[in-house]
Protein 1
Amino acid sequence: MSKTDLKGLSQNELEDLVRRMDEPRFRSAQIFSWIYGKRVDSFDEMTNLSKEFRERLAKSATIGQLALQASETSGKDSSTKYLFKLQDGLAVESVLMPEDGHATLCVSTQVGCAIDCKFCATGKMGLQRNLSAGEILDQVLRAEELSGQPVRNLVFMGMGEPFHNYDNLLKACEILTDESGPNLSSRKLVISTSGILPKILQYADEGHKYRLAISLNATTDEQRTALMPLNKKWPIAEVIRAVKYYTEKSNQRVTFEYVLLNSVNDSVDDARRLRKLVEGLRCKINLIPYNPAVGPYSRSPNERIQAFYEQLAGLKVPVMIRWSKGDDIAAGCGQLAVAEKGR
């Protein structure tokens, strides 16, 4: 009989487990604290549990841990990309971006991706499977352990479409923000979606406090469909309507991510159309110079980036250029996984 992996179980699920083992309810809080707070990976370290209970746990349960398969650190900005091997032999990536005394971590939610964005290396892999809640959150725990740096900001912008793994994603977020565990601020978690409209509406109705970002990347349907085929199903006008619904329902602003691709979506006219699209919305805009990955796409020259940015001057929403990090270590989503698979 296969053992139950405790990493990824919520407080309620741990309560069910200890109840089935005829242990008092408070044992679940102790186990939760050991795994997510103190970060232990063996039952022997859970010293406030009886030896007999620890032995029973070891027979029926395990504490999963992602295995480090490869890592690369940028010589430019100290960003580190980790490739983690999963129990079934597949692999996922996380990227750690150091800041002053802490770090931001870009987290994956799936092995591969079904969205097939034409400029993304992960899209070349296709979708292989969803990650479990434990595999999602363990990227954070392992990155902190390996780097020695506390992670304060999480961005679910790694491999996969987060809203295609909705339940496991939100379960991982719940554990990561639990005060008895990692205790991250919910406002420091950003979930990025390519625009899965039914899930955006569900997310708004459920009242989650994690921040929402949407990959826009184009200002016309023809342009966006060529880059992101899901636009055929949910075109830009519907995305904007969903954003309005979300911002009104949640009283939170949304972040539009716009990857700048040289001579594809980075013209002055593109910038002017983007300006019209977001006027009146409660939002912010992140302009992201492309980190070259696949296909015929290249990074916009700095002068085109600056010209695009200047066309957005005067908007009543924040506009920032988010310069890509780790371009010397293949830090774009899926690049290291594809390279390792090739080897």
Note: The first helix runs from residue 11 to 20.
Protein 2
Amino acid sequence: METTGTMTSRRYADLYLRDAWYEFVRLLRAPAAAIPMLTFPAMFYVLFGVVFAHHAPQQASWVLGSMGAFGVMAPGLFGIGIGVSIERERGLLALKRAMPVPPGAYLGAKLAMAILFALAIFIILGVLAVALGGVRLELSEWLALLATMLLGALPFCALGLLVGTLASAQAAPAVANLIYLPMSFLSGLWIPLKAMPPLLRHVAPIWPAYHLGQLALESVGLVQASTWHAVFALLAFTVACFALATRRLQRVG
């Protein structure tokens, strides 16, 4: 016989799963947001990892790691950042608070949505890398890259949440793009850092995308990154953004 606590736990788990699935489907049904998130990393991979690589597996692997890091930044920055800003202005955050749902379901659903999109991006890039780029990785390297991409999406979910609490619905897309594209370039995701000016190489570690990129490239066996340093930097960034965002949510929700 099930106890009350077990039934409550199952009910809460069901609510979390439903909220997460609805959030994923909601974003998937918004082509203006979903299509760029899923297709841009793939398009850039084909361009830089296949067309310009000229059947060089090492370059194709480098582009796989860098575009993997680039791709998983988008669900948090755009899916969460823009979504939260719209819901905040429409009063949906206040409505969510009044509904009889677990307090963490709202954020949990958005985090799950971002991770599901990160998984989809990993699958798309992996298929392209094997089929067109000639990339051959060990199973352990594929698993390391998968873990890096799924967990690496979380810092940018926290950043997206912060953007959503600060920017208006009209300004949020521009703010997200002003963060996303320059940070990706300055972190060496588009051009290897060794090909960039010394000043940009020296300041690259201040960007969270740099640390995610280094972990992704280490996963595919191309760099020897300081793993724990990169993990700590991303964790500290996540905690700081999340703390600022939740404080802001308490004030504006």
Note: The CA atoms of residues 29 and 147 lie 26 Å apart.
Protein 3
Amino acid sequence: MSTQIQESETETETEETSEHQTRRLAEKRERADMAERAETDLSGADETARIKVFRYDPEVEGKKDPRFDTFEIPFTKGMTVLDALIYARDHFDSSLTFRHSCRQAICGSDALFINGRQRLGCKTQMVDLEWPVQIEPLPHAEVVKDLVVDMEHFYDQMEAVEPYFQTNDLPDGELEEQKQTRENREKVKMSTRCIWCSACMSSCNIAAGDNKYLGPAAINKAYRFAMDHREGEDMKEHRINIIEQEHGVWRCQTQFSCTEVCPKDIPLTEHIQELKREAVKSNLKFW
């Protein structure tokens, strides 16, 4: 009886090994085909661009040590950094990992550290950069794999400022709009453009040294609602109380790094300074 069990286990192990080998061979052939197609494409290109991509995979032995891989990409007019990464993934290494979605600088998912600066891969033109283009994950964030970083902490900071509209002053009519003046809309317009890419948070030296600091993106989101007159003075006071905490607006040292890297040109530092003034005014007492 035991002999039959051993034989059965041996057959199962043999089948698993065979399946594994078959899969590995298929992957090897696929990589070879990709490389061959890439060589064909490169041979017909007028110019090739070189990118150096940060690589790291904690789950694969031999890839746990960070390194840079270099790829030669056929350059075409209008090519973005994201285009180059997609080409490298599709033609050279299917395991190359990075985030992207809309490809129109709206979703904020492909924020990267490109040539020493936080940028959106889909918005950054290869022709505007010095080659070889060095592409790394956002600094001051835990790297999950290759160019992907853990965004959980960033999202927690954003949620901490209650980034949604709240008011007790609703219109009387059920279908009546809660109108906003043109002047007030203009005041908060720029702050509404935030796409949660975390480029500003990554560039902030204060956030790098203080894990509890709300950060420029979260404070900007608080500004968007605190300055919206439709919420009312009570909610404005509530939001000011959130951002004037020890790890709130007062930690900002006005370095302007967040404003410089924002892909949507939001005056983040200006908004933070205005909230500081509002916090001071809310604490003034006259008697």
Note: Strands lie at 48-55, 67-74, 111-114, 117-120, 133-136, 143-145, 148-149.
